[in-house]
Write a structure and sequence with these properties.
With 458 residues, this protein is α/β, with parallel strands linked by helices. The protein has a domain of 316 residues: 3-Layer(aba) Sandwich (Alkaline Phosphatase, subunit A), CATH 3.40.720. It is built from twelve helices and 17 strands.
Length: 458
């Protein structure tokens, strides 16, 4: 597949619509400033635990940390799934996995009948553009809906997670070409996703250059996961992989910085930086992502920066699937709050608190692992075995001490089990209303070539 660009003719009324939207901003008493434009940047496979401003000891993310210092950093942001296709579909639509139907890594796509953030903004006069380095976020997987410009740039082997030459230039070129209108730009950068292959000079960081290149590759790391051993962060093999990952993350942060600098002044821009999912390094016996719904695979950084936001650290539990509704509120654009389409958390953190519903996440696979997180608890259930886990998020934020067998917490376990049953029943009900769309055979082959595998959904 080659990089592609699709241009949709501009509607003559769009500029006028955008101007009217801006003219209406300010009605009422002391309105909060409304950004003109929206930029969303996703750094793939980035757990919050690897970000310096979230407490990580290595200086991996100076640019992201600077954004966090001047904006709102969400300390408890969670994704819908521990793999790209499903979590990004939820970010785009606000819907749960069964709602948007993009569940199988190889086989499902985002259906055309789902309403995306890009479509909602385009209807309100925004010029829209998206640039992706991940084949799971491509035209073939349905993510081009609502975008005038959509480009996916493929890669191969050890270099496929590095930014191709000319990629950022195309982003900036499109951004400048749309300058006469309100704009929505989505950029999905693949680093620091596996393979952990930092280019010079970033390979000099954290001792990465001294570690064999193959130890950052997908084949080697998948083989570690297949061993009959419980991996830990201090396992030398895991520790070496983490150093290569951290160097790749520093490269990704530098790419973020280069992008933001090239876009020019962002004083009137709502800027969002987050990840589609996390990455494990032995915290719960495994590495990489997708296989579990543990904290390191689900808890991601989320930074909002722009007009109308005071600098703050937000401690309330939020879901990245609520970002579409949140961005629409920030931009003063209506969002269709249908069943399972999310709700804004921007200015009302105390309203409709998540503990009543929790943050629901899943792993990949036929019998997924589900996690339900509230402010106080994490409840995990493996669909196949029925195994349950319970963690006290206040006293055990790393979720290391399983309390499911402790009689003192039997009531909490039962209540959360019931809450998950209710959530899964709702998922099945939603799934019955929406038909899952399928990918093409050619795109299936491309995904399998770079390490994605089919997983049948029960």
């Amino acid at each position: 597949m080659s990089a592609m660009s699709v241009l949709v003719p501009l509607r003559s009324a769009r500029v006028l619509m955008g101007a009217l939207a801006l003219a209406l901003v300010g009605c009422g008493e002391d309105p909060a400033p409304v950004p003109r434009d929206l930029v969303v940047v996703v750094l793939d496979a980035l757990p919050a635990s690897s970000v310096s401003s979230y407490g990580y000891e290595r200086p991996t993310t100076p640019r992201l940390d600077a954004l966090a210092a001047g904006g709102q950093r969400f300390a408890q942001a969670h994704t819908t799934a521990s793999y790209t296709l499903t979590s990004t579909a939820s970010l785009f639509t606000g819907m749960t996995p069964r709602g948007h139907g993009a569940v199988r890594e190889v086989g499902h796509v985002l259906g055309e009948d789902r309403v995306t953030l890009a479509e909602a903004l385009a209807e309100r006069g925004f010029a829209t553009a998206a640039f992706s380095l991940n084949p799971q976020v491509s035209r073939e997987t349905g993510f081009a809906q609502g975008f005038e410009v959509f480009e996916y740039a493929p890669r191969d082997d050890f270099t496929y997670n590095q930014t191709p030459a000319g990629f950022l230039e195309r982003v900036v070129e499109t951004w400048e070409a749309q300058a006469g209108e309100r704009r929505f730009l989505y950029v999905h950068l693949l680093p620091p996703h596996v393979p952990y292959t930092p280019p010079p000079p970033y390979d000099e960081l954290f001792g990465a250059r001294a570690i064999d290149r193959s130890e950052g590759g997908q084949a080697y790391l998948r083989a570690l996961n297949m061993e009959d051993v419980w991996l830990t962060p201090d396992d030398p093999r895991v520790e070496r992989a983490k150093r290569r990952y951290d160097a790749t993350l520093a490269y990704a942060d530098a790419q973020l910085s280069a992008l933001l600098e090239a876009l020019g002044p962002l004083d009137d821009v709502a800027l969002v930086v987050t990840s589609d999912h996390g990455e494990a390094f032995g915290e719960h016996g495994r590495i990489l992502h997708g296989s579990m719904a543990s904290k390191e695979m689900i808890h991601v950084p989320l930074v909002l920066h722009g007009p109308g936001l005071e600098s703050a650290v937000r401690e309330d539990l939020v879901r990245t699937r609520d970002l579409a509704a949140t961005m629409c509120e920030w931009l003063d654009v209506p969002w269709d709050a249908r069943m399972a389409s999310g709700r804004s958390f921007l200015r009302s953190p105390g309203l409709d608190p998540l503990p009543a519903r929790g943050a629901l996440s899943r792993s990949v696979g036929t019998a997924p692992i589900w996690a339900l997180r509230t402010n106080d608890w994490t409840y995990i259930r493996a669909t196949g075995s029925g195994r349950e886990e319970l963690y006290d998020r206040q006293s055990d934020p790393l979720e290391q001490r399983d309390l499911s067998g402790n009689p003192a917490h039997a009531l909490a376990l039962a209540e959360l089990a019931t809450a998950l049953d209710t959530a899964l029943a709702r998922e099945r009900d939603i799934g019955a209303r929406f038909e899952a769309a399928k990918t093409t055979d050619a795109h299936r082959a491309e995904l399998e070539d770079i390490g994605y595998f089919d997983n049948e959904e029960d």
